[in-house]
Amino acid sequence: MSGGCSIRAIWILNSLDSVVFSRRFPVVEKRWQAACKSENENASEESFSYAVYSLLPADSELASAFVERKQREGSARGFGIRVSQSSKGSDSWVDDPITRHIVGLYINKEEEGENNLLWPLILHIKGNYFIIVLPLVEPRYLKAYTRLCKRSDCGNAIGADDSLSSLLLDLPSITGAFMVAHAIGDIISADVAEPEVVVSASPSVGGLLDSLTGSIGISGISSRAKPVAAPVASSVPSNTAVAGAVAADAPKIGSRPLDKDALRTFISSSMPFGTPLDLSHSNIFTIKVNGFSSSDLPPPDLKQPAWKPYLYKGKQRMLFTVHETIHAAMYDRDEIPDNISVSGQINCRAELEGLPDVSFPLTGLNTAHVEGLSFHPCAQVPEHRADKQAVMFSPPLGNFVLMRYQATCSLGPPIKGFYQLSMVSEDKGAFLFKLHLMEGYKAPLTMEFCTVSMPFPRRRVVSFDGIPSIGTVSTTEHSVEWKIVTSGRGLSGRSIEATFPGTVKFAPWQTQRLPSSRSGFGIIADEDSDVETENCNNVVNIEEFLMDKMSNDLPPADLEEPFCWQAYEYAKVSFKIVGASLSGMSIDPKAVSIYPAVKAPIDFSTQVTSGDYILWNTLGKCPSTAAEKA
Amino acid sequence: MTDIPPAAFKPVSPQDWETLIDDFQYGGLRRHKWTTLSPVLLDLALSSILKRDFPLKLHLLLFLEEFSDSFLLEPISLDRLLDSLRLVIQSPADGFHITLPLKDQFLVSTTSIFISLDVFNKFDIRYAESLVELLLIIVNRPNHGPDRQTRAVACECLRELERFYPCLLSDIAGHLWSLCQNERTHASQSYILLFTLVIHNIVALESNVSVLNTSVPLVPFNVPQSLLAGGSSNSTNTCLNYKELRRAMAFLLESPQVLTPCGMVEFMAMITPVAISLELQPSMLKVQFFGMVYSYNPILCHVVLMLYLRFMDAFDGQESEIARRLMLMSREAQHYLVFRLLALHWLMGFNELISSREVKKKKAMAVEMRLSFYPRVFDPLALKALKLDLLAFCSICIESLKSESASDAGKSVDKLFGDGLVSVSAFKWLPPGSTETAVAFRAFREFLIGGSSHSATDPSTIRTLLESTIFNTLQQYGRWSQYAYGGAFGGKGMTEDLGIVSKGYGPTILKWQEDGIFPLVQTDIGQIWKICLYVLVKMRTYFNQAQSALGGVALKYEMVSVEDVRNINCLADLLSYKVASLPMKYLGLLLGASFKAKNIWDGVVEKIEKSLAGWKRLYLSKGGRITLIKGTPSNLPIAKLRDL
């Protein structure tokens, strides 16, 4: 039965590379062995035949294979693309960045010969832990991958037969295993916060369990902590907002211990035989804590969906929150246009009795330049044209993300202007900001706070001099922070102009030699390099010289980073705007209809936060891309 | 901890069990030392589980399940296992000693042990029958409130049994169907999946049973005769009851909105082959399920793709919509990076697939979409790399379409290449080991050789290369390739020299290019192709200069292999090159010799002495001389080496 998703085993390793949790599914393993047996019988007729490794390794074997791969591939994730250190048979030999997530391990490498590759192992890193999930695939796919990572050509080929792409297209079990790995990751980090829904008057509303226990009237058994009010960016993969940080392949030491009981419960309920049935932790833990009483009657005429094990009882209302994150690259250059994009989502909470359908038109879509809409599985999307502008859905319990969209900013950038930094000597820089905030933004739009920070991850800030036209300035060891609008003094209904000239002094530059294990790509620094430092005296342009010197030992960026942050000078703006969305996306509470009709108040709010909102130094280098124009 | 526990040692306390479980999971010797215990392990574990206040009940059950292969199972232990299961199931859940999760897990573990030890075939059939019967009794209480989760679990157990012993439950399909229709709690998903699997197996094995018939009672359960006979002889009746099965399908196709995304994956995996066998209209499935492609749940999108793969004809005309969706999915910043990468991979696999079906039209589609593959500034480098792959694929499509249409195809290939590389253009000044360099070089190669057969043994591919547009434009990127070249080949001997040469001394490179000596390096990467690329760039220069055919002209160019290159002679023949060996004179120096050796610099010293002698004749002011003295050494490598 191809097309399903089953898991053979799950391992969790800690930062010391030892297995701290493992779970095997003997039933799935039995299917795998049967498949191997028939594959090996068939293969004997072919010219290209070898047996596939058919056993599941013990924890110790897996751990040592993991360590071996880590050494061979430079880091736990690996190189990702083929580099000179890649060896034949390694994942990076395949020359595809996704091999940092879908890895292969050689079990008992020294003992056996060929047939000991364990693939596809889904690698998900969460906090200190490496989560490894092994889905069931047909043995022929394993063979195909073995060929891929051993072929003697020059790496990834587009359009070749049996390419990695066509394998991945054929294997939903890999996709499913990623879902499993991420669900487990959320449990490990106790990061099970539901999407935030804001009520205009009071702070954010709690999750599923609270709504249930509240409604049933037992508030004492709320086993979990109140959901953390997560800003929109954290319910999604971290966009590595920590600019310039050396990215984290090596997990930090020392965080909370593994809650093995919670893991066991989750795995046993979500996939009793290794085949996932429901990965929603809130449902699973609520069922575990609450169970069902005989007063929980199923609906009289409809089937209760598996994703909604309980029905809401109590006062009815609906809440919608539009969350938008603004990413911008502001260049202040003629030849490179500024680039602003909005990624938004509508979070929803429907406290409605029974199994009602809700629908509403999306207003503002025409002006919003929305380029892609995608929906929660509970939404019914007609076959043709998803962008037909009405949404109909049957809401689950608790907070959920009803839809996501990518859009452009309909209002113009909330912060525009420039940042210029020029090194007047090796250790001293003069800078100038000139910014316009909220230009053209009308009354309900309020900027709650706005902070600009200049990170200098590779220089130590010694002193700083300068007074901004508005706001306050502070420094840390590696940055200068300028608070323009502070919370409590929101900026509403008017725009302001802020300037900030100043100088910043750094500690003398020291060559940073990073341990060679981190030099992931290409040449290992050449000690005999003929860059002769004595000759620099007559180089007139300090800036260029300094840049050269500094860029010479820049560490390579991770493939998960958009570029090498440390190679650039920039200022990062963080802000929060409430009152309306910047894309124009909005919901008219009067237009929301509920069937069967009930009278329920509908609340709508918006919240806009900054993602990577970067002002590039006008006088320095900046990363850019070509515009998508014909 | 002693290495070998005494034979009489029996784990009793929770701590003992924890040690034992750890040892089993660790494997190797630590597990081996418990072998003496294996005949009694199951009994010991069961008695611990049945103790009132044993704290590790669930954990121990999981252990039994995972390591059931290490028991020596006797019929008497099976009796014991079933009795214990009955005991636990029938005890009221007190929320402390007997909890609902314990009951659920006991059901799952017992079923799992039965399947992994193949109790059906290896032991008396009555064991299997009593397990199935127990499960059926639990299942047969639709809409019963408090134990709905347990009923769902029992359905899953039955489904797993049916999966391993197909048609085990086909005789009672009628009962299952009516249970399925009646169940209205959230457990209905498990009932639906169970019934779907029964239908699937009936169709797959072409078993002639009626799914409406409820004449066979649910309990007591008897294993069907066809299964007992050995499984192979059941093909006597090969006519399916199409009418009834279609009715069952119609019922099942009504139900998907109650399924979770994971449930949907299972459901579709079973329903698709049934739909094919029953010759249902694929458009029916399409109407029902195509909307899932607009979900942000990656697994649901994948389900639609799987459906497409099975019913390509029914989805004809929908390709560009699917491609557009996948492209949008890769842009969703809210997704984990890996799902954005997967979306692009699916798109590539999808493109390959459809271009193999209907070449021209689908290639045109890729070309139309090319602008949407442009990397964006905050795309992670991994995503940029894959987008560049897609652009390379587009350029191949343009190449292959260019003969028929657009005369400016060449121009747009250039544009794609140039525009694409802007996103990683930092490789020009970042150190050679930077990730940007690696990505840029990868893309560079992809553009050049993506369209060729990609096999080092096929000489025709080099000819194809020579004719490609991208190759024509490589000249202007020659300098870039230099950087990339230096970056991508860290390592040994000569490549190090090249790395230095390529660090930015423009004149030297030009000189070198005109020189016509093309080092062919087989690095530890072992990629003849990367090097070919470089050679080809050089060859183009030669073409432009000489404007003459390759053949017949005196061999002017030389190739040098540093390590063993398999087909260097073949390549040299093809390109009309000479094969030379190291060390050789290159830019006035001995190439291939260690540049730390003193005597190889003799020639350089001599030449510079000559130059200095010339300068002495110049009458310069004192200031001028100082400037010259200061400026010269730093520029020597650039300016003077050129004249060497």
From TrEMBL, chain A:
<keyword id="KW-0813">Transport</keyword>
<protein>
    <recommendedName>
        <fullName>MHD domain-containing protein</fullName>
    </recommendedName>
</protein>
<dbReference type="InterPro" id="IPR039591">
    <property type="entry name" value="AP5M1"/>
</dbReference>
<dbReference type="GO" id="GO:0030119">
    <property type="term" value="C:AP-type membrane coat adaptor complex"/>
</dbReference>
<dbReference type="InterPro" id="IPR028565">
    <property type="entry name" value="MHD"/>
</dbReference>
<dbReference type="GO" id="GO:0016197">
    <property type="term" value="P:endosomal transport"/>
</dbReference>
<comment type="similarity">
    <text>Belongs to the adaptor complexes medium subunit family.</text>
</comment>
<dbReference type="GO" id="GO:0005829">
    <property type="term" value="C:cytosol"/>
</dbReference>
<keyword id="KW-0653">Protein transport</keyword>
<dbReference type="GO" id="GO:0005770">
    <property type="term" value="C:late endosome"/>
</dbReference>
<keyword id="KW-0472">Membrane</keyword>
<dbReference type="GO" id="GO:0015031">
    <property type="term" value="P:protein transport"/>
</dbReference>
<feature type="domain" description="MHD">
    <location>
        <begin position="315"/>
        <end position="578"/>
    </location>
</feature>
<dbReference type="GO" id="GO:0005764">
    <property type="term" value="C:lysosome"/>
</dbReference>
<dbReference type="Pfam" id="PF00928">
    <property type="entry name" value="Adap_comp_sub"/>
</dbReference>
From TrEMBL, chain B:
<dbReference type="InterPro" id="IPR038741">
    <property type="entry name" value="AP5B1"/>
</dbReference>
<dbReference type="InterPro" id="IPR048979">
    <property type="entry name" value="AP5B1_middle"/>
</dbReference>
<protein>
    <recommendedName>
        <fullName>AP5B1 middle domain-containing protein</fullName>
    </recommendedName>
</protein>
<dbReference type="Pfam" id="PF21588">
    <property type="entry name" value="AP5B1_middle"/>
</dbReference>
<feature type="domain" description="AP5B1 middle">
    <location>
        <begin position="242"/>
        <end position="444"/>
    </location>
</feature>
<dbReference type="GO" id="GO:0030119">
    <property type="term" value="C:AP-type membrane coat adaptor complex"/>
</dbReference>
<dbReference type="GO" id="GO:0016197">
    <property type="term" value="P:endosomal transport"/>
</dbReference>
